[in-house]
Amino acid sequence: MTRRSGLFTLAVLLVVVLVGGRWLALETAERAWAATFTGGAVLLEARALSRLMQIFVVLFAVTWATGNIFVVYRVIGSVQLPRRLGDLEIVEAVPQRVLFALMLGTGIVGGLLLTLGTGDWWQRALFASAPPRFGISDEILHHDLGYYAAVLPWQSTLQAHALAATVSAALVVGLLYGAIGSLRFRQGRLQTSDHARAHLAVILACLAIAIAWGAALDPAEVVAGFHGVVDQTAISVRLPTAGFVVAVGLATAIASLIWGWRDRPNLVLGSWAALLLAVAACYAIVPGVLRASRTPDETQLLQRRATMEQIAFALAPIDPGPPPAFPSVDAAGRAAGLPLWDAGRVAAALSRGATAVALSPSPPGWLVVPLAPPGAPRIAVETDTGLAALHAPVRSADTVIWFGPGITTFAVGSPDTWPALQAAGIPLRGSLRRAALAWALQGPALTRAETDGRLLLWRRDVADRLERLASFADFGEPSPMLVDSTLWWVSWGYVASDHFPLARSLPWRDRSVRYLRAGLVGAVRAATGETHVWLAPGYDSLTAAWALHFQPLIQPTQEIPAALRSQLAYPPELFQLAASQLARANATGDSDVWTRRPDEPFQLAQGKELWTAIGFETDTPPPKRFVALLAGAVGPAGPLLRIWRPAEGTLERPPADLVGASETSPGQLRIWLVGGGASDSVVTLQAKFYQERGGVPRGVAAVFLTVGTRRGEGPTRTDALRSLLTGEDRVAAPLDTTLAGRWQQARRLVARADSAFAAGNVERFARVWREIRRLLAPAPRPR
Questions:
Q1: For residue 81, how far is the Cα from the chain centroid?
Q2: % of the chain with per-residue pLDDT over 90
Q3: Beta 474-475 vs 455-457: how paired, if at all?
Q4: CA-CA distance, 585 to 503, in Å (whole number)?
């Protein structure tokens, strides 16, 4: 063995050891992590199915690409390359082994290129094998809705890759045959060798069948939104003509095979010209001409679309009744009524660094959980003077947070000190196991002998942990929750689809979806890593179909603890899409558009339920008027939505916008109902905080409260409520008579004056201005 071949062999062995060792390390880590869950074998089966599908796809693609190039290679005799040595020009034949290596390498590279984007095929195939059944059919093609969400995407994926494979093969093979002279045009006539003609005929027949297959799927793709927003023209033109394109495609495939048997070039050229013309006319030319020449009646289509979009975005059914109103203005304005603070300001005021905050109905207040030690969960209660931080009723064993949002590193714990971690931890036993885990996690410290017998805590980020168990779902931002004095992270799992009949797309995260439901509820115990994924209350058919493949990792709804279920808020991302869909569905034109007020949804606790709500207003015709309140909560049957609109003839005016200053910032606007029955009226509450831009809130500068056309304001809730009820501006006495105390009171008065000026209330502005002069004017000198 020469030195060069020895080095080459050594390099190959090194690559094999590195790649194979890395694969074995990752496989060991995945199996060890799956063993920490009940039913973790499902994860291993999913990995095996994914690997099997990927191997099959790679083998098929490489075989297809390499086989076509090999057929061309067989007719290549010898390739000669000219070389010049001084004044002499010699011709040197390329060795056959070099040509074979080039052929083989080109085929492998081409096959690998065809496999790009096929990593999730196992999920699509698995879902299409047992599609969901909605029990509802569309009124155009009469397919069950589950066909559009599961079966059609898989069929379209296969057709698209078949089209890409045949088109690429036709181009590459045609170029190769042209380069060696087996395919050429002479005097306007196509001339080919028998071998090249037979080969190209088979590829062209496969390409024509792929086009016909796409035409057969096109009606369903049009209805499902594969080609953009569905309109009446597309339904009237593309659906009836799909059969014609299928027929032309099959005829073209037959003509291509006949050309391969008998040299009839005009037959193949004419059939392909007819196929391309049919595709262009049916899919582009005729629909474009009809759209430009006339406007079809889409009344029936719009009605069908509204029904489908209600199903797609969980708006069916939507209760037109009002959410539970406050019995009185006093109940709404007190600290136990509408929240004055928001999660961001609570976190900034009570903690530094990463902090999770959630509105908690039981115990009432804001649950504040610092994510970095030192720090323990606390309950922040709103008072007239600000926030009162109380110790949360958490078990002592749950004060250390091992699992939480944003925790991406692994940790090592002792089972003697933390026995509750044994269920979620990976035992570090044996040097080989520790070495494999260290290689997989890139943690050399795990190889040390002192880590033997300890527990490895891996994948501690809540959303990532839950998505590993239910890979078909996307989990949202987890919220802290106290359940029987135990701290949990709870997150909604969203199941989305890019395609749904007649529905228009809405933006969600970094994509557009035509279907979105919150079908799962995931929970991770912060101190132990105990993890559960349940079917959500009122889960949809898509989620149910997925859950069948992931049992027992996905647990039934009945197993959700009652204390946890009672604290669930409406899925926030689903509420955002529902609000967008509601505004879009009620917009009758460019001049009549529903605008959100406030910009982002807010939460409040009403009774034992957490409600998420947002208001809508419009300014056409002037003046601005409040038109609707959308509110959502999780009821016994699942998430429910309610929409309230003012009675006909009433004019609910939205409050004026608060404007911040260099040292003040407007808080979140809360809108709700007060009264009861038919006499419900809109109540709003908003604060202005002493807070510089990006800074920590130092307190409340002013509180603004409105009910109908009545308005009240003051430095505290109590003062604002008193001002509303009595119609007078009440100014709380300064805490002291020092200059600093009077200056603090003056700043509050200036904020109130600014609000009165913005609202156009000149009388109130004058009264507040007199109070400012009285507070800051120098004492009169004795004469």
A1: 57
A2: 42
A3: unpaired
A4: 12
